[in-house]
Write a structure and sequence with these properties.
The chain is an alpha+beta fold and 401 residues long. 28% of the residues lie in helices and 9% in strands. A hairpin with a 2-residue loop joins strand 1 and strand 2. Helix 1 crosses helix 6, helix 4 crosses helix 6 and helix 7 packs across helix 11. Bound molecules: heme C (2 copies). InterPro entries: Cyt_c-like_dom, Cyt_c-like_dom_sf, Cytochrome_c-type_DH.
Length: 401
């Protein structure tokens, strides 16, 4: 399983710099982490690899590029053990444990894209290990950096870019190089990726201004940089209103792509497989990223501390307890299993940025909205209309006559 999230999340535009003030409060307890890979601006060559690995972790490459541990064929009838394993795989929301750590970044995960009621496509995450025949073994560091910035590959393809690939153009030169060095250090894995199918030819992205080196932290500049170039908080916690991206205000049922996650047992895992779900879950459900501006300076939850926000980000524990006063676990889609490896300094910078937001009232449904086996109701919740015949086909469903 991989984070299909972004497949249904339209590319983020207008990552306008937020008006952020100075970092308030003492960061004394964070000094000890200053030597971590995220902090140094000009590391020795030996540190580049560690920095690349760190960026790959918080940039969640593996969420999409590491294939799940499913055999190429569905379990044969009668193989109860494999059937149980597959069932667990498709319905246990803790999907990260099922990534195949013996094939890190070997690609091949299908993403079904629905552009309109009549137009769709499928892209597969690519093999980004240095395997020469099936991966990026022939690519130089410069080739990788270029692909991350504009989507152009040395073999003349143009990548279909969706978040977080839409962010990577903003990477500092040294960070982009660090990521490339890290990819080249991976164990090569042979895995041939099927051809994608798109109803249009993707265009290269225009180059954007980017720094030579990333800002250091903890600082507001570091937070803004990470959110623009690496980490997807805005992607999941925003929505469009009249074509304008309302940052950090939460997903919206009226905005079919931003901040919406489809959950269910029928997620596509193998080549050619179809399914409506984007993440495993028992039954069909839809989930929205919440309104983070409520934690801001003038928001109703302004009493929430930076450290409570850091705990939500890195430990997956909701800010507010559940109705019985118990800590409420956040859904795994929140990617806290990846952010758990974020340095305290970076997490502090980002949480502090959230604390400086100004409140924008916007109600977001909390927790999964469950539809049981009614996939059409889940579809309607996401896209706002009844599925067309074409929709049913791309997601492998049948419509009642
Ligand atoms: C949301 C899923 C997703 C995430 C997260 C993601 N990628 Fe990708 N990546 C893709 C898909 C899908 C493609 C193929 C696009 C296409 O074929 O048009 C791709 C293609 C690539 C390619 C081009 C390889 C080739 O042979 O064409 C590189 C390089 C790459 N990704 C690197 C990364 C790195 C590095 C990260 C993390 C910092 C990352 N990706 C995170 C989905 C993702
Ligand atoms: C892939 C989508 C996704 C990304 C990326 C993401 N979030 Fe979330 N986040 C969610 C969803 C969905 C929830 C709600 C989960 C739940 O209620 O179980 C959530 C919940 C939260 C909460 C808890 C809110 C509460 O009321 O307790 C905080 C805080 C938060 N996210 C902050 C962040 C920050 C900061 C980042 C970036 C580092 C981030 N999120 C990145 C999807 C995402």
């Amino acid at each position: 399983m991989a984070s299909r999230r972004a497949a249904f999340v339209v590319a983020l535009t207008g990552l306008a710099a937020l008006g952020v003030g100075l970092l308030a409060g003492s960061a004394g307890s964070l000094r000890a982490e200053r030597s971590d890979p995220a902090a140094g601006a000009r590391p020795a060559a030996a540190d580049l690899l560690a920095r690349g690995r760190y960026l790959a972790t918080i940039g969640v490459c593996e969420a999409c590029h590491t294939p799940p541990k499913v055999p190429a064929q569905p379990p044969p009838p009668g193989d109860e053990q494999e059937i149980a394993r597959e069932r667990d795989f498709r319905t246990n929301p803790d999907w990260k444990q099922y990534l195949d750590e013996t094939r890190v970044d070997a690609g091949g995960v299908p993403f079904i894209l629905r552009f309109s009621p009549t137009s769709s496509g499928v892209v597969y995450s690519r093999n980004i290990t240095p395997d020469v025949a099936t991966g990026i073994g022939r690519w130089s560091v410069e080739d990788i950096v270029k692909a991350l910035r504009t989507g152009e590959t040395p073999d003349g393809r143009v990548l279909f870019l969706f978040a977080p690939h839409t962010f990577f153009a903003h990477l500092a030169d040294s960070d982009a190089r660090a990521l490339a060095v890290y990819l080249k250090s991976l164990p090569p894995v042979s895995n041939r990726i099927p051809d994608r199918q798109l109803p249009f030819p993707p265009q290269p992205a225009a180059p954007v201004p980017h720094p030579a080196d990333p800002p250091t932290g903890p600082s507001p500049a570091r937070a803004e940089y990470l959110l623009a170039a690496v980490v997807g908080c805005k992607e999941c916690h925003s929505h469009h209103e009249n074509g304008v991206l309302r940052e950090f205000t939460g997903g919206d049922p009226k905005d079919a792509f931003v901040g919406v996650f489809r959950l269910g047992p029928d997620l596509p895992l193998r080549t050619g497989e179809k399914g409506l779900a984007a993440f495993p879950y028992p039954g069909n459900a839809v989930l929205y990223g919440g309104n983070l501006t409520k934690f801001g300076v003038d928001g109703p939850s302004r009493d929430t501390s930076v450290f409570e926000l850091m705990r939500a980000m890195r430990r997956g524990i909701a800010v507010e307890p559940d109705q019985y006063g118990r800590p409420r676990p956040l859904e795994h889609i929140m990617l806290w299993q990846f952010y758990s490896q974020m340095s305290a300094s970076d997490a502090y910078s980002i949480a502090s940025l959230v604390k400086r937001l100004h409140y924008v009232p916007h109600d977001v449904p909390q927790g999964p909205i469950r539809f049981g086996d009614d996939w059409r109701a889940a579809f309607k919740q996401v896209y706002g209309n009844e599925p067309s015949q074409h929709d049913a086909e791309i997601f492998g469903k049948t419509l009642p006559k």
